[in-house]
Please model this.
Amino acid sequence: MAVTARERWSLSEPALDRLLRTLDADPERAALRYEEIRRKLARFFEWRGCPPAEDHADEVLDRVARRLDEGLQIVNVGAYCYGIARMLLHEIAAKLDRQRTALGHLAATVPTADDDEAEMACLDRCLDELDASSRALILEYYEGERRDRQAHRRAMAARLGIAPNALRIRLHRIRRTLETCLASCLGGRETNGPAASLLTGGRDDAR
Amino acid sequence: MTPADGKWRAYLLGRLAAEEAQALEDQYFGEEAVFEEVVLAEDDLIDEYLDAQLEGDDRRAFEERLQDRPELAARLEARRRLTRALRRRVDADVPPRVGRRQIVLGLAAAAAAVFVSVRAFQEKPIETPRTSLPTRPSAVARLETAPPAGASPATAEVMVLLLGAGGVRDKSSVPSVKRPSSAPALRLVLNVGAPSGRALEVVLEDVDGATVWKGTGQVVTKGPAPQAQADVPVSVLAPGDYIVRFKGLPGGEDEAFFRVLR
Model:
């Protein structure tokens, strides 16, 4: 994908610092906010069918940093990023020769016995890394989700005394953590997978 | 599914007009909670796709998007792997008589399953081996003649497997059939408690919980007990273990386990 802005201007450390300071005076909160915006941008490009979504997200952030570097005052960085993202989307649409990724890699692979064994060993290791309540929760969920997922979630939420959506978010986080752990344990190359695309330092996209 | 979920799903499946999509994007860029909702809606779509619960236009739309969204494809693959592993772990861990994969037919070992190939419209009754079977109604095995739905009476052939629900863990009692080589369908028959005029939803899953076939069935009343029946295309039946679920029965849902041999 053409990234003409990047060719002319590359993100420098002072420019990144300026962007972070604009996001929040507190460096830690600024970093969190940066990741939050980046996650949304990546999903935006993905949902709009423009891979590689993360590269485009970075491109948007670079462009915003550049504007700041040039002295532009930006009040709402999130909204500004979205504006830039929409502009970039138009640029991509104009240039993109809709290359379609073959669906072949999506075909369900039939795991061999060795795969199964490795997968289960890794799963056990990943489950062990969860706290006890998360482990119990995810196992309970998988004991009943095949029958009627939503009814099972409602029943679990009622028993736990929490809102169904809160449970849904919690389950989502646990599953993403496990997916990341499994991929890492199995030596997978999911560079666009659950961890690489959306998580930073184990954080999740539905927090 | 909440009304909001419906909106997000439409967005995720590319069904919204540009203005509507943009309005939603404004929302999720502005509010973290809204973004979470969209992510969760996509989570559900992935689960439904993997369990073959996403059907028709929704499934086609989702598959189209998978083709040019490698990130989505990667998440789908990660979820497929995790779900497969977790279901296997859960099936292995749960105590006997609870695990769904250990739910084995309640038929007695010797007469648990009867597998026959029956020429359609045979008038001559076939001997019914009832005498040595257990008394539980659902464990009564018998043979029957009937053509598969829509088949030509002159040439049609159907294979019948009589099932029974129960919690017997003894694998020797698993009804097993050789994979039919010529018949178009395997008729799964399960004795049920009460008649029903409604069409049944029938789901066939493999041991990993993956749905291999979904279709409809019916409850017919022949002989002492109403029976739920479904004709499963032989083409979907690779050798292996299966669980069949009959949904929409008067008592809710019933399921049974069986094995297809080479």
In short: The radius of gyration of chain A is 21 Å. Residues 164-185 of chain A form the longest helix (22 residues). Chain A touches chain B through 63 residues (CB under 8 Å). Chain A has a mean pLDDT of 79.
